[in-house]
Design a protein that fits this description.
This protein has 155 residues and is mainly α. Helix content is 54%, strand content 9%. It is globular, with a radius of gyration of 15 Å. The termini are far apart.
């Protein structure tokens, strides 16, 4: 399956910048706001409290995870290469945060696949909760993702 995260590409750089900004970097495992063990740039899979990584390991982990999440995201999109760059970056940031399953089953993806990119972008702010609790950090992230998503799209 194709990828738009080619090394050195503007999309890859934007994805890394957006995700790393919102996830932050912690080299020692911690519990996120709902208690899930997390490390590096928001990695939760297989993380145990006490895990430690170097900054280089965290950067590698982020790159690998973004590629993995992109593959899952693209599998649910009818025309992934037709999605405008800003929207693509926003949707990958979103997928990285909520998971491929949530992305694929979402109204956002249904709207995107019907050709309603603006409608898909406007779904992002609805995803500002974790375990049913509205989190200010997620509200801020979704607002920024929506703005990035709509950037360059005539509305």
């Amino acid at each position: 399956m194709a990828s738009r995260l080619k090394k050195g590409s503007a999309i890859a750089a934007a994805c890394i910048a957006v995700v790393s900004t919102f996830e932050g970097l912690r080299t020692v495992a911690y519990r996120d706001p709902i208690g899930i063990p997390t490390v590096c740039f928001g990695e939760t899979r297989g993380v145990k409290m006490g895990d430690r990584y170097t900054i280089a390991q965290c950067k590698d982990m982020l790159g690998d995870s973004l590629k993995e999440f992109e593959t899952g995201m693209r599998a649910c999109m009818k025309q992934p290469d037709q999605v405008p760059p800003g929207a693509y970056v926003a949707f990958l940031s979103f997928t990285y945060n909520v998971g491929t399953g949530a992305f694929c089953k979402s109204t956002l993806t249904r709207k995107l696949n019907s050709g309603d990119v603006v409608g898909a972008c406007n779904e992002l702010p609805k995803w500002d909760r974790a375990a049913g609790i509205r989190l200010p950090g997620l509200t801020k992230r979704r607002t920024a993702e929506r703005a990035l998503c709509l950037n360059g799209i005539p509305v």
